[in-house]
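It would be a great kindness if you could assist me with a short task in structural biology. The matter concerns a single protein, recorded as an amino acid sequence and a row of backbone structure tokens. The record follows directly beneath this note:
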Amino acid sequence: MSAAHDLDDLLRSAVAAARAAGDVLAGGFASSDKQARMKGHPNNPVTVYDRRAEETIVDRLTAEHSEDGILTEESDESEGTSGRRWVIDPLDGTNNFLAGIPHFAVSIALEDADGALVACVHDPIRNETFTAARDRGARLNGRQIEVSKRESLEGAVVGVGLSFEPRRRTEMIGQLPALIAFAGVLRTLGSAALDLAYVAAGRFDAIWYLALHPWDVAAGRLLVAEAGGRITDLRGLPADDPLGGIVASNRRLHGEFVDALA
């Protein structure tokens, strides 16, 4: 099998798993009892549907790609033999899901030693599926997408990821005046995976988070890169560890944005 066909098959697997999990989430969205509990912090919930969506994804990917490792938000990491691993967030935006706010997503990426090979962020409520494959561009429901063309932070549409941890939230709010003077629109929507997908689609000019986990950014990182954008840490350096924070943008205004935060 050629490398191109291999990527096609891997991306099809990711999309099918994400859409199957999305069906689980869409079915549970209207439930009056999502059986939520807190994990590690009183503002960090997990629901029975996080678990069901994760099981759906893992079962499908394990059946099709048993040699690959799996890293997912809700379970221990499993090692593979292929040198690749699937990085999964079965429900990004759990607080929105619990509150009845229709803005959340499934995020799946497959990584090798050089980073993400394929990526899928699926919004089951809007039926929007953002996909990317290495060196082959990014798409939304099959249509090519690219980052915005805005040249300056002046008037930019900026997504801000407010942490569930009060200390980090307060720190971010303290830095907002630097952006308020320039940005035209500030939004905090509650799903890092969708924020990154929105940068890739040109809906956001830039986004900013103080701390994320690998499953939050694995798919979105490839989407942004393949759509022509850029992701760094808060100093403009390679974002090797998302726990140190990320800035993602259309590339054109990236330096100005990082300077404003500094």
Observations:
- The two ends are 48 Å apart (CA to CA).
- The chain has a mean pLDDT of 91.
- Residues 157-261 form a domain with the D-Maltodextrin-Binding Protein; domain 2 fold (CATH 3.40.190.80).
